[in-house]
Amino acid sequence: MPQVADPEIAALVRAEVECRWPDGVSGIDELVRYGLVPFGKMMGPWLLIRSSLAVGGQIASVLPAAVAVECVQVGAMMHDDIIDGDPQRRSKRAAFARFGEPSAIVGGDGLFFHGFAALAECQEAGVPVDRVARALTVLSQTGLRIGNAAIQEIRMGRRICSSTEYLNMIRDKSGALLWMACGVGATLSGADDAALTALSRYSDLLGVAYQIRDDLMAYDGTRAGKPNVSDVRNGRPTLPVLLAHQRAPREEQQLIERLLADTDSPVAERYEAMTRLVRAHDGVRAAREMSHRYARLAAKALDGLPASEHRAALAELTVPGRLV
Amino acid sequence: MPQVADPEIAALVRAEVECRWPDGVSGIDELVRYGLVPFGKMMGPWLLIRSSLAVGGQIASVLPAAVAVECVQVGAMMHDDIIDGDPQRRSKRAAFARFGEPSAIVGGDGLFFHGFAALAECQEAGVPVDRVARALTVLSQTGLRIGNAAIQEIRMGRRICSSTEYLNMIRDKSGALLWMACGVGATLSGADDAALTALSRYSDLLGVAYQIRDDLMAYDGTRAGKPNVSDVRNGRPTLPVLLAHQRAPREEQQLIERLLADTDSPVAERYEAMTRLVRAHDGVRAAREMSHRYARLAAKALDGLPASEHRAALAELTVPGRLV
């Protein structure tokens, strides 16, 4: 994910989180703080605040919602790490590896509930209550889209599917994650339908671009923080694998299929073989091009927003170099 | 939990659930329906609707919230079953045993998000939007209390604690579960502070009474549906165990402590030994008396509500015979 946290926005959100969950907090909040701190790239809060400003909103009114979105997204990651068995997150042990799976399940739940509680606080921060109610619908419906994608992803494991099926799944997984931020921010700030449509298309397209880029990093050697081998270990048919499979001759297609289904061979071996196949059949290059295409479309979608420095900042996220 | 579902209330909630998640629904909603149907005792929806009516509300306005509370409570159970490793729920396989743990984690999350989405619908059903926003705070804050209790319960496993510590934990675990229903219903229906205070005390006290009764059933041979051995397998120091421990001579105290800590002996053996010790040292009788005491206090708390058939119905739940 891009390091988008403009210093002022990041500082405000960090201060808000530190104030709510100071060092040494106990009970479920120990898990909540463990998930939130050290801070990640804060793409959610950043997108929420920029989307809000782009439609005429005020930072102070939506700051609790920025915390809300960070909570919900971190809660989803805490549960994802259990599902994927990924023991590292933000350069430390994942919550389940540190506190055990039961506590990490409950900790993720706590992050969701804190998210909704923080959203309700926007009323005291000056947002008209009918907008808070509409944002509640956006937050809960996007949570459901992400959950639906998670179920699809679990069921799509260890077999080849069409790239269309895969792209639809990641639109719900990563597109909805970005829309959660943009949609809640814009709704709280009274965006009109045209602005909401623009931001909805922008988030879906950018989410897909970002997810493809993230998938790529498993095979081009650049992924940091998270182990490179997670997708291979979990038999995830990500886009580079699917595109390489489309381009490979039948025998190597079968090799790819066997590697996805394989749960026995050492992961390092499977990873090396899959990386070789993905690169040999142009999966990395083809997926990178597709990611750039989605990013360009995301930039175009922003035409539906009034021009402003905030629209420009949102557009900057679509520049391939920024999508690191 | 008591079989409280008055036929009309139950029929309305069932129809609402069947309409939202009909047979054959797919994706995350397959998990959601699996958790909701067959219906449980529907104590949450029943309490929500009765509390609402007791303060002058309308069933039709709060019906989406009744579904919301059922969703959130079933989501919490879906996660609890993973944590406790209890493979049975509502006389069928628990979601994690049927669909796998990853899907059951995501399914529980989906039930939470559906709960918040359903709450938002109360506005279209006729509830003033400021009450919806206040109910959002009640729903999310009670979710946090329950999560906090779950973390405490995990940490209290396999060792003796004071009965006060235990009673505080179950007030947050089961009291908050009932308050989620009563508090959301009454808030949506415009209850004044006196009514909210009465219902809050009622739910906390009744929740403790119910939880002690539920704990007892592991040792008096009446628990149905859920395996009797779950608490012993998980080394849960429930009230009958704690009260027996208080009353036992030192040697048998040590036996109880060893049984809680034991993760090796066959569960059936541990269960038999613990049941013998709990009964021998009066744990069942002493805990039952305490449950009755809490139920009487719960009935008394209702004095703060205006007299009505709905208050009477809420009071009836505190009669020990009803608490089955």
UniProtKB/TrEMBL annotation, chains A, B:
It comes from the Bacteria. The lineage of its organism: Bacteria, Bacillati, Actinomycetota, Actinomycetes, Pseudonocardiales. This is Geranylgeranyl diphosphate synthase, type I. Keywords: Magnesium, Metal-binding, Transferase. PANTHER family: ALL TRANS-POLYPRENYL-DIPHOSPHATE SYNTHASE PDSS1, GERANYLGERANYL PYROPHOSPHATE SYNTHASE. Its cofactor is Mg(2+). Belongs to the FPP/GGPP synthase family. GO terms for molecular function: metal ion binding; prenyltransferase activity. GO terms for biological process: isoprenoid biosynthetic process.
